[in-house]
Write a structure and sequence with these properties.
By secondary structure, the chain is an alpha+beta fold. The protein contains 15 helices and 14 strands.
Length: about 375
């Protein structure tokens, strides 16, 4: 009996997400998105990493023209990424977040896009809880550059604010350095969290074009019309404007080549809303925390308004910081005109995976082990 490839795809997505909410509807949406023949090609692509298109040609039981058409469809629907690596065209599976991103970003107003938006919005709102059996965060926060690096001196920051010793600042802490390093190819796409909210009638006033993607992800999104190429200078303009709007920078939780910089708002972002609900495996704090100087504080509450995680409150005319909620974004430092806040390195630093590929391989291992344990203990229930 032939395998049910739609069921296999749901199982693959559950490696990353845990049990899928609205699983039957999700499966039906997948059936409308891709065909069984296209899914057969999807499963020729390795579970992690990439494979040259030439290798798929050797494995596929299809004429080359039919194979290329399937690859084109899978890529256009966000199930795989197709890009150039070492002079070869290669294919890589997309995770469920990547797939739903591309579905929500489609220009056509279709029932299918509406379902994917409703599906994702239920997760954003916490109406549906996804128990991802992993511990490694997908993303981590980068602090406002001017609060940790002399390279940010051009930013408008109170002169009284001290910044850490530049010798302690690493490229992994500085957004302009990370983007410069990955500037071979840069593109910008709509923030799919805010776009989702807009599609369901709950949008905020923040800009949509704030998601920066690099290299292979940029190439894949540009080729299929969901992102546009931009220069380094335009990327940095988007970064500065995001900071001024109170958005939080998030990057892949790794040391090496990053694939994206998300500029997140607390009202829509899956990363920030997950953090606010106590989840620690979606987003990770920056390598910095905020040190508060009570003697300089006038309790103006500007930093409270600026804090995206509601980690600050006023008690007896003094600011109280909930360290467990603080993400170390630095927005309170730029907001304070009295210099009562400054960024300092955290005493303990989490070990970062070397590359984005290492990061997702690690998360995939954790997910498979976690799901296996859940099955053994009877915690997984499927409709």
């Amino acid at each position: 009996m032939a395998k049910d490839l739609y069921e296999e795809l749901c199982k693959f997505y559950e490696v990353f997400m845990g049990p899928l909410p609205w699983r039957d509807e999700f499966r039906r949406a997948l059936e409308e998105t891709v065909t069984q023949e296209e899914l057969a090609v999807f499963f020729l692509v390795p579970m992690s990493g990439s494979a040259p298109l030439s290798k798929l040609e050797r494995r596929a039981r299809l004429p080359a023209t039919e194979l290329y058409a399937c690859v084109e469809r899978l890529a256009s629907e966000g199930l795989i990424m197709v890009y150039t690596h070492d002079g070869q065209t290669v294919c890589e599976r997309g995770n469920p977040a990547y797939m739903t991103e591309q579905q929500v970003r489609k220009a056509e107003d279709t029932p299918r896009r509406a379902f994917y938006a409703r599906f994702f919005n239920s997760i954003l709102n916490g109406e549906v809880s996804i128990a991802i059996p992993t511990k490694t965060p997908y993303y981590r926060v980068l602090p406002v550059e001017g609060t940790v690096s002399e390279s940010g001196a051009r930013r408008v920051i109170p002169v009284e604010v001290d910044v850490p010793d530049p010798r302690a600042v690493l490229p992994v802490d500085v957004v302009s350095e990370m983007i410069r390093r990955d500037a071979d190819s840069i593109a910008v796409a709509d923030c799919y969290c805010r776009l989702t909210k807009r599609l369901v009638g709950e949008g905020c006033g923040h800009a949509l074009q704030t998601c920066l993607v690099f290299n292979r992800v940029a190439e894949a999104l540009v080729d299929y019309g969901t992102a546009r190429r931009i220069s380094y200078d335009e990327a940095m303009r988007i970064i500065w404007e995001a900071e001024e709007a109170g958005l939080v920078h998030n990057v892949d939780n790794c040391e090496g080549e990053i694939t994206s910089v998300c500029n997140c708002c607390p009202c829509c972002s899956i990363l920030l809303t997950s953090w606010q609900r106590g989840m620690t495996n979606a987003d990770s704090p920056s390598r910095y925390r905020v040190a508060y100087e009570a003697d300089a504080c006038i309790a103006c509450e500007t930093c409270l308004e600026r804090c995206p995680t509601m980690a600050r409150s006023i008690v007896d005319e003094l600011v109280v910081i909930d360290e467990a909620r603080c993400l170390g974004c630095g927005l309170c430092v730029t907001a304070c005109r009295q210099g009562a806040n400054r960024m300092v390195l955290r005493d303990q630093q989490a070990r970062l995976p070397k590359t984005a590929e290492d990061l997702y391989r690690q998360i995939g291992r954790e997910a498979m082990i976690g799901i296996a344990l859940q099955k053994l203990t009877g915690l997984v229930r499927r409709s």
